[in-house]
Prior knowledge:
With about 90 residues, the protein is mainly α. It has helices at about 10-20, 25-40, 45-60, 65-80. It has a domain at about 20-80. Mean pLDDT is about 80; it is low at about 80-85.
Amino acid sequence: MGIVKISDLMHDNLRAASDALSRSINAQAEHWMRIGMLSELYPDLRHGEICQLLMRARHAGDEGLSFFAQQAVVAASNTSPKLPRKAAR
């Protein structure tokens, strides 16, 4: 565990969101960090898809990313539009 310094504005946003969502400030910060990290790792997934996968991982008893990594590949292949390939020259 460590200390992370954040701006006063971000702390105010965390406090407001944690109150609204009945989470501790630390739990809200961790939630936002997890969603942000997974959004960067899997840019093809929408926020709702990431949340659904996190719920499935929690249900399966996997708090790490191993479940998510397996499911994200499946979800991305099922939901991402297929991009046309460039013609070979």
